Amino acid sequence: MVGPRVKRLVEPSVARPRAAAKPVDGVLVVNKALGWTSHDVVAKLRGLFRGQKVGHAGTLDPAATGVLPILVGKATRIAEYLLDWDKDYRAVLRLGDTTDTQDATGTILESRSTTGLTEDAIRSAIGRFQGRMAQVPPMYSAVKVGGMPLYKAARAGRTVDRNPREITVHGIEVQGIAGRDVSLLVRCSKGTYIRTLCADIGAALGVGGHLLALERRRVGPLTIERALTVEAVEARLPFGHLEDELISLDAALAAVPAVVVDEATALRTLHGVPVPWRAAQWTDNVGTAEGRGGQTVRLQDGAGRLLALGRLPQEAGAEIAILKVLAETNPQPA
After folding, report:
1. Per the structure, how many domains does the chain have?
2. Which domain does 46 fall in, by range?
3. Cβ–Cβ < 8 Å for 59, 194
4. Catalytically active residues, by annotation
5. Same domain (yes/no): 94, 205
6. What is the number of H-type helices and E-type strands within the chain?
7. DSSP secondary-structure letter at 240?
8. Which of 69, 157, 236, 334 is the most exposed place for a label (fewest CB within 10 A)?
9. CB count in 10 Å sphere of residue 301
10. 11 found inside a domain
């Protein structure tokens, strides 16, 4: 999610990068600092993990903090399969002030008194923002209309018509109300703009509002409790102390059903050869392949090693297509 440019409050370190002890693959949970862009974090870690690919899954605004999934090595190849994760946010909604960016980095467009607004009214209005709903993406976002990101039009002073998108707010809890500031815990689907949610709640209350502060607490199975700051990553990397912090590709893809193949089929799989239907052993989280045509699955060998991602055929008896090979053809000894 892209917001307006903000003054960076924490500057990335300019210290000379140090190489990792050995190549690694996996997902690293980083606690992004206030003022850093997601690109800042990737650029910094790219320098630390010399010679390895580094990317991220899910952008976090510069004015927000919290969980940023960083993909290292082969994990960069599975980014598209991680973007559907739902998320938890801790947010502060400030009522009374409407801004052009829907958050505290923008210019106040209108201020209204919140006098007379009761706690019951606030809780009641917020309680209606649960379940499936249509949300119009904010102008300061990376959503493209006519091939151009909305934020570029916004910075040029133009407003573009946007189609609403369906989102799901699985839960929204009021954790506290202090004056006109409301602390919220939000659990939502991908693509949900918390800025817009806050602005919409303010509008529903008739006083306007914007997002004052935001922390992402969880992205899928990745939680803030296991997140490392960039500084902590830099301190541990030269000593090889990151391996326990990296989430394996197989663990990151745990929500994708697994299919086990025999040793001979595993060797062919590593060369991208489609898997015959009869060679696949359906695990408990796949059950039967009936009605699952086109579904993505993990292909594992008998030892549980992740080999590749495949796509189930539309009809029983056909072959499982190999989408991405994720294991080494000739793995190096540990």
Report:
1. 3
2. 26-82+221-249
3. no
4. 61
5. yes
6. 7, 19
7. T
8. 334
9. 18
10. no
